[in-house]
Amino acid sequence: MKEKIKAIILENTEMLTAEELTDDLQLITSGFIDSFEIIQMIDRFEQEFHVALPLEDIELSDFESVNDIERMLLAKGEKSA
Amino acid sequence: MEQRRICSRCAMPETPGHITLDAEGVCNLCRRDENVVKGKSASFFGMDSERKIQALKNKLAKRRGGGKYDCAVAVSGGKDSLMALYIAKKELGLNPLGIFLDNGFSIPEMYENIQNASDILNVDLIMFRTNTMKNLFRVMLESRMELYYCRVCHLLLDKFIKDICLQHDIHLILGGYTKGQSYIAQDELFWIYDLSDRNMLTLLESHPEFADLAEMFRNPVGYFAKHYKSIEQISPFKYFDYDEDDIIQLLKNELKFKVPAYSWPKNSTNCMFNFLAQYLARKQFGYSQHETEMSGIVRSGEMTRECALETLNSPITRADLQNVLNIVGVSEEILD
Q: Which of A30, A55, A56 sits opposite B36 (nearest CB)?
């Protein structure tokens, strides 16, 4: 799952290489991605992981790292199961 | 106002529950950044400038539209936004549309600065004056609720500017905010935004004249994603090394830039309301974007702590506050 998350992040940012994108890298506070890029990624996460991520429920802190995104997607998946 | 302890490395004041100072007098934000610098976590800000500029060029290529303008630059008349306009035109070779949103509190020099920049750079400019902020601020002040005025104003400015971009089929905005003002990365401001947004929603319930704004305060990120999904906003200062003195000198030489004679913080704002916004933010929340912005620049080594503290300690007098309240049309009793 983490590898798919990383692939989507790398598609949407010009700032990172695959080597730099570690599981716990701070994406937002370290300046690698911003809210626009997160919004662009949401559609891809929804398609790839078959979850609904309504914009009104977005918490930026859920996107702070690959680990956070995985945690959020798993929680959303459990809710919709 | 009571004297509070300030971080011994940056300019953040101790604020219970949010900014803590350790035994050495160093705040939690400086400690967090220490971890980033030591390599525990990589940072975009630590990358070499060549790579950062290449990242910006890639981004510009991706967002460049097919219309008359390559991008919009939101100009306030201050140094940062005019430098962004200069960078867009002269250094990146773009054809930008300047957009000046006058919130009713612009400092007099700003009008002249904007017109000079537009003329000298040969850039088209839209000037749009709104009374929405003035009317909304009046209601907010009279409510005496804990509200962050700069947050409210920035959201409204964003909305108005993006509306204009949609009208002109523009999908990229270069913002003039500096590295320190890259609010998205400053999670130390998030609790202030959350509290202020919640209070705004409560306030707007009893003011149907502003009902159309409630959706924006309910979830700002979701609101802008829903209505302006195709528009990206970036700051060129995230990618270029920033030196405030060099920028002011360049703008003075090339764009006849004038530093405001009367403003807070001195020399570095374009908005008269800042006197009151800063006074209230310190009183209600303990600090504002100004403390976080300057502290961020101090941490990055681009400003000394002494310089930041001198700027932040610029006095705000009762007369300054009265001037602003007169513009809004609210009695100074709300200060008590």
A: A30
Residues 46-75 of A with CB under 8 A from B: 54-58, 60-61
Q: By the CB < 8 Å criterion, does A18 face chain B?
A: no
The pLDDT tens digits for A28-61 are: 888 888 878 888 899 899 999 999 888 777 778 8
* ipTM given for this complex: 0.77
pLDDT digits (tens, 9 = 90+) for B219-260: 888 888 889 988 888 888 888 776 778 888 999 999 999 988
Question: Which residues, in sequence order, are CB contacts of B140 under 8 Å at separation 6+?
Answer: B147, B149, B152, B200, B203
In contact, B179 and B235? CB cutoff 8 Å: yes
CATH of B28-335, one of 1.20.1300.10, 3.40.50.300, 3.40.50.620, 1.10.1040.10: 3.40.50.620
Q: How many whole angstroms separate alpha carbon B136 and alpha carbon B206?
A: 13
Domains in chain A (CATH in brackets) are 2-16+23-80 (1.10.1200.10)
